[in-house]
């Protein structure tokens, strides 16, 4: 689904749109899920195993979300 807003609108959220684009490209377009539970399990595994712990995010300074959180927890404490 295309973006709802124009650049600068409150509907413009490039980070989230980029995330869903990557999720679709890497997981959803290449798989046929036979049950809803199978699809949910695969998306959960993608998020928890790959996206949060291995994939580096440019918006987080090329750190994984887990690394970014750990750095910020120690910075705040």
TrEMBL record:
Gene3D superfamilies with a match to the protein in the record: Ribonuclease H-like superfamily/Ribonuclease H
Pfam annotation, one family: rve_2
Domain Integrase catalytic: 17-70
Stretches assigned to coiled coil: none
Domain of life: Bacteria
Organism: Deinococcus oregonensis
InterPro entries: Integrase_cat-core, RNaseH-like_sf, RNaseH_sf, Transposase_IS3/IS150/IS904
Lineage: Bacteria, Thermotogati, Deinococcota, Deinococci, Deinococcales
Official protein name in the record: IS3 family transposase
């Amino acid at each position: 689904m295309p973006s709802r807003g124009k650049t600068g609108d409150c509907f413009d959220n490039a980070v989230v749109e980029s995330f869903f684009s990557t999720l679709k490209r890497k997981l959803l377009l290449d798989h046929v899920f036979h049950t809803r539970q199978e699809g949910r399990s695969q998306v959960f595994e993608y998020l928890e195993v790959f996206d949060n712990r291995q994939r580096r995010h440019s918006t987080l300074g090329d750190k994984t979300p887990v690394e970014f959180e750990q750095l910020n927890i120690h910075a705040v404490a």
